[in-house]
Known about the structure:
Mean pLDDT: 90
Structural class: mainly alpha
Number of domains: 1
Largest sheet: none
Helix content: over 70%
Amino acid sequence: MLLRLYLFSLYAILFIFAGFSLIIVFNVNPFQSPFWMILIFYITIFLFWTAIFSLIGYYFKVWATNREIIFSHLLPTLRQSMLIAVAIIGLLFLQQLRVLNWWVGALLVVATFFIELYFRKEKYAR
């Protein structure tokens, strides 16, 4: 039951926040909108990409392990998808500030990779 609830909520988040993101992209002028509208845009994009990468990562891990212990993939996949979404939002924010270069983007991606390695190390240290 927990697995169905998890997957249903991820699909619901995916479709709801995809719609919100499209509404914001097509109806809001970013040059005249207040700060809170840009913040809502970043939050909706974050939740959309988190849901996308969670579903893709979960189904890939279930497929790669031949449907063994499917419940153990829930939390690590969610954590990894949130880190990927944070990297995407960080890249978008740096592009908005016009400070995004290839090496700045590479440093951000490497930093999120090291954060994931830290979480994996903590898991194996226990």
